[in-house]
UniProtKB/TrEMBL annotation:
Belongs to the ABC-4 integral membrane protein family. This is Putative ABC transport system permease protein. Residues 284-404, 730-846 form the ABC3 transporter permease C-terminal domain. It is a multi-pass membrane protein. Keywords: Cell membrane, Membrane, Transmembrane, Transmembrane helix. The lineage of its organism: Bacteria, Bacillati, Actinomycetota, Actinomycetes, Propionibacteriales. It comes from the Bacteria. The keyword Hydrolase does not apply.
Length: 854
């Protein structure tokens, strides 16, 4: 039986190749996702290991909850004390800053979208365990205020070489005094050195601009002789733990020492946790591809088993048992799974490179990191490839055991109707359960409503897929009637062929249905989110213009100072925001001047505007309800400068103008240790002619800061949504590719199965063009059926998801009917294109040989 199974497999090479399509693509997405996530993890782990010393001395609260440097620093006098510690070989102070943007030779911001734009002082201190960190690989170190060093990748992307003048915008630079020369915010130092990792590695998309220590202190610490942290290098034979304990003995209160290993693990863990959604995100789409691929594999094996019914019946007649026949099919599935997993691994490498390139467009640049092939990737690839294939082949294999030898020899292999009825009842049961769970997620007060909503959607999707052979019959009957009227006998034949085996037609259409249902869902979510943003901006936009950093970080208050002096400007409202911690959880806070609360038109329902004062805050209504807070209650936060307690002075209705739900005064914000940088300026003007041009002149030399009216601000808020939806569609594209290949596979195997029928049709006068038209119409039926089911489900799922998040500020449900119509039109195009190869093969069949085929 083993020899027979293998000979049968090798004797049908075309079927073998076509049967591995879904396996290869499904495994490729899993392998590619794992390779990319392992590369991501390894890159950050290696990066942080090479950017810390043996012992890191830092002020408690030296960084905000978002990882950016705070205003808490270490005095330079501490370095002398640390140099006297036993076991310390050298001590180096570091000045670090975020928001130091490099502008390319084309006037564009090099990076900062995602990975930070880092600046600081150049140091040649060794990393922990003697590892070599960033080193000057070309040129020399910076000396004086007119020299700078850039990392290799940044210099390359910016188009700069050693000796060029570099444009740098230190948007978080500290001005030495109010009203300082505005031109100092745009630096043009000479690039004197290029830094890199000699042993390999990169900054993963971050940019780095290094000045000498005195210049960095002037720029980022206001000229203070201090540092943001200090590295202590261990002498030979001294461990990091020993040095840490020795250093800790001489540190003042408010300063801590941690080993480089702990600091690297802490930084890497925090960052990897922040980007862990990428791995989850990719694996979800890998699962979607596997589900779609499983439909294709089940369909393929059902057809292969049906085509080999005579062969299997002969084996039964020669004495093979049902179990042997079943396991012969399983053996074929095993071989196909191994082949598909092996090819999928290879394609997964290419896919990982593609994912890496995709995310590099959004700032996460891993181009300098080699791909990581962990053992789990190989295990997962073969487990997924083999197990999914064998599981998908199990049902067709079981059905072969129920075919009587005499029945198969008569070529009567029609599936019993009870099988379809059973699938219908299973599908209806799943749909009912899914609707019930979805109702609980949408309308009940049970916790974790999002999981219930997602579970209900999944159950409905699988239920419709299971019941589709029966519920699709009306659509197939209508298609047959329409084709018969439009295309005559050829159309009638195409419709009858689709109705002949509704299981196969519906299974192939279900693969396309899943992909399109998810695509339609995301189209509705994206369109609704943008419509919600538009309405929120329209209802809550105050002032005439908004000034913000296109990267999303802060910028110097000097910009607001300059704008206050522009003719026609009546008022400039500054808003700042950052994050502290409350009960161990990150919690964002916003800040404005108390005198500006009235200008922001906040709807204060409890308390009044005077509730925002020193030590007193305003909170948003929804957050106050969630936290059970009211006027007079106390709020305690862990801020960079230490613990701070505030009194709730008022509650205001949710307003998108206030980014975070807790509103502090600007003085309390600075006192908490946050950088004195503005995040948003709201400009009120007298609407005089040319006012925006005059405001634009203020930031003309600062491409990272923009001035926007209401329409421009709404467009900026929609941009991240468009970006997210584009990524989703790019990943869903693979599932749709599998579905399209499924249609091609089904039609091609159907042609092989109906070789004799095709020969007879040609013999009685059906021309080649008519035959091609018949097969094309069959493909269109499958594609349209999948598209209709997918669009209908996608609309329902999209509306349900938007209703589920109605309390998150996304109150508008918008269905992009034009986009859905495009999906339906594309489904017809997909059907036509999918039929090209099978139709061409059918038309080239030799008539006499086809008639003689058994």
């Amino acid at each position: 039986m083993i020899r027979a199974a293998l000979k049968s497999l090798l004797g049908r090479k075309v079927r073998l190749l076509m049967s591995t399509f879904a396996i290869v693509l499904g495994v490729a997405f899993v392998a590619g996702s794992l390779i990319f996530s392992d590369t991501l993890n390894r890159s950050f782990t290696a990066l942080f290991a090479s950017t810390v010393g043996d012992v890191v001395v830092r002020p408690v609260g030296g960084t905000t909850a978002d990882g950016a440097p705070s205003t808490v620093t270490l005095p330079a006098s501490l370095l002398d004390r640390l140099r006297d510690v036993d076991g310390a070989a050298r001590v180096d102070g570091n000045v670090n800053a975020f928001g130091v943007f490099v502008i390319s030779d084309r006037g564009k911001v090099v990076s900062g979208f995602g990975p930070p734009a880092i600046g600081g002082n150049w140091s040649d201190a060794p990393a922990g365990h003697g590892l070599q960190g960033l080193a000057v690989v070309e040129g020399h170190e910076p000396h004086g205020p007119d020299e700078v060093v850039l990392d290799e990748r940044t210099a390359e992307r910016a188009g700069y070489a050693v000796g060029d003048r570099v444009v740098i915008i230190p948007s978080t630079a500290v001005q030495p005094e109010p009203g300082a020369d505005f031109d100092s915010l745009r630096l043009t130092p000479t690039l004197v050195g290029i830094a890199g990792f000699p042993s390999g590695g990169s900054l993963n998309g971050a940019t780095y601009a290094a000045f000498d220590t005195a210049t960095a202190q002037d720029l980022f610490l206001g000229g203070e002789d201090a540092y943001t942290d200090v590295w202590v290098t261990a002498a030979d034979g001294v461990s990091q733990e020993q040095l840490r304990d020795a250093v800790a003995e001489v540190l003042p209160d408010g300063v801590e020492a941690v080993t480089g290993d702990d600091a690297a693990d802490e930084s890497a863990s925090d960052l990897l946790e922040a980007v862990s959604f990428l791995t989850t995100f990719l694996l979800i789409f890998a699962g979607i591809s596997l589900v779609v691929g499983a439909f294709l594999i089940v369909n393929t094996f059902s057809m292969l088993v049906a085509q080999r019914s005579r062969e299997l019946a002969l084996l039964r007649a020669l004495g093979a048992s049902k179990r042997q026949v079943i396991w012969s099919v399983q053996l074929e599935a095993f071989v196909l799974g191994v082949i598909g997993a092996t090819l999928g691994l290879g394609l997964g490498v290419l896919l990982a490179m593609g994912i890496r390139a995709l995310f590099s467009n959004f700032g996460l640049d891993l181009a300098g990191q080699p791909l990581i092939f962990a053992p789990r990737t190989f295990v997962a690839a073969y487990v997924v490839g083999v197990v999914v294939t064998m599981a998908a082949a199990w049902l067709p294999a079981r059905r072969t055991g129920r075919i009587a030898p005499v029945q198969a020899l008569r070529d009567d292999v029609a599936l019993p109707e009870s099988s379809l009825r059973r699938r219908l009842w299973i599908g209806l049961a799943l749909i009912v359960v899914g609707l019930a769970v979805l109702w609980l997620g949408l309308f009940s007060d049970l916790p974790h409503g999002g999981w219930q909503t997602g579970g209900g959607i999944l159950a409905i999707l699988l239920g419709v897929a299971a019941a589709s052979p029966v519920i699709s019959r009306p659509v197939l009957a209508v298609a047959q009637a329409a084709f018969a009227r439009l295309f005559g006998t050829v159309g009638n034949l195409a419709g009858q062929n689709s109705l002949r085996n509704p299981r196969r037609t519906a299974a192939t259409a279900s693969a396309l249905m899943i992909g399109l249902a998810l695509a339609c869902t995301m189209a509705i979510v994206g369109d609704s989110a943008k419509a919600s943003v538009d309405r929120s901006v329209e209802e809550n936009f105050v002032g005439d213009f908004v000034v913000s950093n296109v990267i999303g970080t802060g910028f110097t208050p000097a910009i607001g100072d300059r704008m206050e002096r522009v003719d026609g400007v009546q008022r400039v409202v500054r808003e700042r925001f950052d994050a502290g911690e409350r009960d161990g959880e990150r919690q964002g806070v916003s800040a404005v001047e108390p005198a500006d609360v009235g200008s922001l038109e906040l709807d204060i329902t409890d308390g009044d505007q005077s509730g925002l004062s020193a030590g007193s805050v305003l909170v948003q209504r929804s957050w106050a309800d969630d936290e059970d807070l009211g006027v007079g209650d106390q709020l305690t936060f862990e801020m960079p400068a230490g613990e701070r307690t505030y009194t709730v002075g008022g509650v205001f209705e949710d307003n998108p103008v206030i980014v975070w739900p807790v509103l502090l005064t600007l003085d309390d914000f600075v006192d908490a240790g946050f950088p004195e940088t503005d995040n948003v300026l709201i400009v009120f003007t007298d609407d005089s002619p040319g006012i925006q041009d005059r405001l634009d002149e203020v930031v003309a030399d600062l491409p990272v800061v923009t001035v926007k009216d209401q329409a421009g601000f709404a467009q900026e808020q929609r941009a991240p949504i468009d970006q997210f939806v584009r990524i989703i569609f790019a990943l869903l594209g693979l599932a749709l590719v599998i579905a399209v290949l499924g249609i091609v596979n089904t039609l091609a195997l159907s042609v092989i199965e109906r070789t004799r029928e095709v020969g007879l049709l040609r013999a009685i006068g059906l021309s080649r063009s008519q035959l091609r038209r018949m097969i094309t119409l069959e493909a269109v039926v499958i594609a349209v059926l999948g598209a209709l089911l997918g669009v209908l489900l996608g609309v329902g799922f999209g509306v349900a998801l938007m209703y589920a998040v109605r309390d998150q500020g996304l109150e508008v449900i918008s269905v992009p009917f034009g986009q859905l119509a495009v999906f339906l039109v594309l489904s017809v195009v997909i059907g036509v294109l999918a039929a090209v190869f099978p139709a061409r093969r059918a038309a080239r069949l030799d008539v006499l040989r086809a008639i003689a085929t058994e």
